[in-house]
Amino acid sequence: MQKPRIALDMDEVIADVQPKFEALFEEAFGWRPDPEQYRGGKIYDLPGTQKLREALHLKGFFADLPVMPDSQAVVRELMADFDIYIVTAAMEFRASFEDKYDWLAQHFPFIHWKNIIFCGDKSVIRAEYMIDDHVRNLRTFQGKGLLYTASHNLGEEAFTRVNNWVEVRAFFEEERRRLA
Ligand SMILES: [Mg+2]
């Protein structure tokens, strides 16, 4: 029998983009904002800082992002009962492809390339679960969406929220019991 599928986002779910943007912000503007100042948005939504977002187009940006704590261990555990697919909206950032591919090979070598999907619009994805930090991706998803906490989604109430990978593990332990 086919295992239930989990579509797993990369940025701000298994790869932490935040520290890099904080460092770039400080480098560019000489100060470091408190996350409360851009609650509900991204750091580059602060007035006059939009050009920071252009860093996403630079080769190497995605190459050395820290791994979200516990994500490797929990993904490995989940693979016993679920098919994991990495689903990342990479197409906006041409230079990101190799970086993302190499990052996955380095940090998640146990995920087969056949289970990696670089895409544009995630609404084409069909799976039982999706873990993502953007509500726009969960809104068009037909399965069960889990919202991974990030500054820009604080205050969103429409989806089951997971704040870290320990909570992801707990959610799927419950699902295993329910499906058994
Ligand atoms: Mg993301």
Rg result = 16 Å
Strand content bin: 5-15%
- Quantity of strands, as a count: 6
Number of helices: 5
Largest sheet report: 6 strands, parallel
Query: What is the CA-CA span between the terminal residues?
Result: 13 Å
Q: Give the H and E element order.
A: EHHEHEEHEEH
Share of helical residues? 25-40%
Uncertain ranges: none
Shape: globular
Structural class: alpha/beta
Strands ordered across the widest β-sheet: 3-2-1-4-5-6
Mean model confidence by pLDDT: 97
Bound molecules: magnesium ion
Quick synopsis:
This protein is of the alpha/beta class and 180 residues long.
Please provide a written account of the structure.
This protein has 180 residues and is an alpha/beta fold. 29% of the residues lie in helices and 14% in strands. It has five helices and six strands; from the N terminus they run E-H-H-E-H-E-E-H-E-E-H. A six-stranded parallel beta sheet has the order 3-2-1-4-5-6. Helix 3 (96-107) links the parallel strand 2 and strand 3. Helix 2 (71-78) packs parallel to helix 5. It is globular, with a radius of gyration of 16 Å. The model has no long low-confidence stretch (mean pLDDT 97). The protein binds magnesium ion. Magnesium ion (MG) is lined by residues 9, 11-13, 132-134.
